[in-house]
Amino acid sequence: GEMSEAIFLTQGFVYDSAEQAEARFIETGPDEFIYARYGNPTVRMFEERIAAIEGTEDAFATASGMAAVNGTLTALLKAGDHVVAARALFGSCLYVLEILGRFGVEVTLVDGTDLGQWRAAMRDGTRVVFLESVSNPTLEVIDVKSVCQIAHEKGAIVIVDNVFATPTFSKGMELGADVVVYSATKHIDGSGRCLGGVGCGTRQYIRKV
Fold this sequence. Notes:
alpha/beta; seven-stranded mixed beta sheet; 18% strand
C-alpha cells in the first residue's frame, strides 16, 4: 500500500536454476529481468507509466534524453538510408544527425514550418523523418499531423521529439507519429534532479527492432 514505488539498486537477478537463466537470456521463457542494463522493476514502472501517458504499447528508458534520440534513430537506420529532419533542433540532436552522416546516412535538413520543403525533400527511399513538435530552444511549432501524412505517403517512419510540448499539450501518436521520444531530464522530473530519456512506440519497435 505504499504511495511511492520502490527503488531497486541492483544490477543482477537471482535464478533458481541454470535452465531458468538460459531461458531468460535466450527469451524462450517469460519476459523477466536478467540484467539492469536491460531493465529492472523501477525502470519498468517508469516505462509503463510513460507509455500509458503517451498512449503507446510500450516504452524503453535510457540513460539520457540524447541516448533516447540516438537509440530511436540508429535502431532504424543503416548506411545508404535517407533522413529528412527539421533544421531547428536541439543542438545535440543536430550532432547525432551529423554523426549518422559520417556512417553513410544521408540527412536533409528543412525548414520545419514549411510543408512545401518537407514534400520536396521526401524521396521514395526516405527511411525516417525526425522533428521536434516545438523546437528547443527556438520554439518553432511544427504541423506534426501534416508532416506525418507527407512522410507516410513515402513510407517513412516519423520520430517526434515531444519534450517541449509534453504529452499534456501534444499527443504525437494521435497526430500520426510512429515513435515519440522524451528527455526525462526535462519536464518528467520538473526540478532538474534526474537524468534520463525514453522512447515510446509499438511493442514490436521497442522490443524487437
